Automatic annotation (TrEMBL):
Residues 66-270 form the PCI domain. Residues 8-20 have a biased composition (Low complexity). Keywords: Cytoplasm, Initiation factor, Protein biosynthesis. GO terms for molecular function: ribosome binding; translation initiation factor activity. It comes from the Eukaryota. Residues 1-24 are annotated as: Disordered. Signal peptide: none annotated. It comes from Cavenderia fasciculata (Slime mold). One of its GO terms (cellular component) is eukaryotic translation initiation factor 3 complex. This is Eukaryotic translation initiation factor 3. One of its GO terms (biological process) is regulation of translational initiation. SUPFAM superfamilies: ARM repeat, Winged helix' DNA-binding domain.
Length: 274
C-alpha cells in the first residue's frame, strides 16, 4: 500500500512537471505570466523550474516586465546546482536590477554571486557600471557605457532607462546621499555605504553633508549635459519631460520647492587615525 502511494505521488509530480513544461510563456498575457511565475517559484528548491525562469528572464529583457523574486530564485537554484549555472542569464538579471535603480536589487543579487565570478565577463562590465552609478560618478558611467556600447546597446531600453533613472527626482521618493570632501576630491555616495566605510577611511578633515534627492540642487546646463550624457537638442527634450526642474539662464534647479524647504543636516567627523 505504501509503495502504491509513493508511486502515485511520483506520477502526480511527473504530471505536474509536464504541465509546467507545456506552458509557453510567450503566449501568455503579462498578468498571466506574472501569475504563472509567482506560482512556479513557490517550489523554489526545484531545479526543474530553472529553464522556465531562464525563459522568463529573456521575456523580462525583451519586454517591460521585472520580477526580482523570480530572478533571486533562479540565482539560488544556480547556487545549489553549480552545473546548471549560466553566466549569460546572471548578466541579464544584473542588467534588469541596474535598470531598477535606485533600489538595492543589484546589491542583493551580488551577495549570491562568488567574488571570483564577479570579475569575469560579461559580469565585470555590469559590476563596474553599478559601482560608478552607486558613487554617482556619472561622467564615468557614460564613458563606461560608450566604451562597451555593443554590449549595453544589445539590452533593450537599457541606455534610455539609465538616462531616466540618473535624472530621476520623484516627489513621492526620497533618497539620502552624502558628500565626502577630502583634500583631493569630492564624491557622492549613498549614506548607508558611507557609514559602512567610515571605520576604514584614512582621509583628514572629512565633512559629511546630508543631501536629499538623487543629484545636485542646482547645476549648470553644460554640467547637466555631461551628467546625463546628452547634448542639445536632446538635452532640451530631456528637460521638457522634467516639469519640476526649473531653468534660470544657464542654471537648472533639479529640486522642487517642497524639496528645497527640507532641512539638510551637516555632520563633522573627527579625523580617523590608523
Amino acid at each position: 500500500m505504501e509503495n502504491e502511494d509513493q508511486q502515485q505521488q511520483e506520477q502526480d509530480q511527473q504530471e505536474q512537471q509536464q504541465q509546467q513544461d507545456d506552458v509557453d510563456l510567450s503566449t501568455l498575457s503579462t498578468a498571466d505570466k506574472i501569475e504563472y511565475i509567482t506560482g512556479l517559484i513557490a517550489d523554489s528548491y526545484n531545479i526543474n523550474i530553472a529553464p522556465k525562469l531562464e525563459q522568463f528572464v529573456d521575456i523580462q529583457i525583451a519586454e517591460t516586465i521585472y520580477h526580482f523574486q523570480a530572478n533571486l530564485t533562479l540565482l539560488k537554484l544556480y547556487q545549489f546546482n553549480p552545473s546548471a549555472l549560466n553566466k549569460d542569464y546572471i548578466a541579464k538579471m544584473l542588467a534588469k536590477a541596474i535598470m531598477n535603480f535606485p533600489t538595492n536589487d543589484f546589491l542583493f543579487l551580488s551577495y549570491m554571486i562568488p567574488s571570483s565570478m564577479q570579475k569575469e565577463e560579461p559580469l565585470l562590465k555590469l559590476f563596474v557600471l553599478n559601482g560608478l552609478i552607486e558613487t554617482c560618478k556619472f561622467k564615468e558611467v557614460w564613458e563606461h557605457v560608450e566604451k562597451n556600447e555593443a554590449f549595453f546597446s544589445a539590452i533593450p531600453n537599457f541606455i534610455s532607462t539609465l538616462h531616466r533613472n540618473i535624472g530621476s527626482n520623484k516627489e513621492e521618493e526620497e533618497y539620502t546621499y552624502v558628500l565626502l570632501h577630502t583634500d583631493s576630491e569630492t564624491i557622492m555616495i549613498k549614506i548607508d555605504y558611507a557609514y559602512n566605510l567610515f571605520p576604514f577611511l584614512k582621509y583628514n578633515n572629512i565633512v559629511v553633508s546630508s543631501v536629499l534627492a538623487i543629484t545636485y540642487s542646482n547645476v549648470t546646463l553644460p554640467m547637466l549635459g555631461e551628467l546625463v550624457n546628452l547634448q542639445s537638442p536632446k538635452l532640451e527634450e530631456y528637460l521638457s519631460a522634467k516639469p519640476n526642474w526649473k531653468i534660470n539662464g544657464n542654471v537648472v534647479s533639479l529640486q522642487s520647492e517642497s524639496h528645497k524647504q527640507k532641512k539638510s543636516d551637516t555632520f563633522t567627523f573627527d579625523p580617523v587615525t590608523g
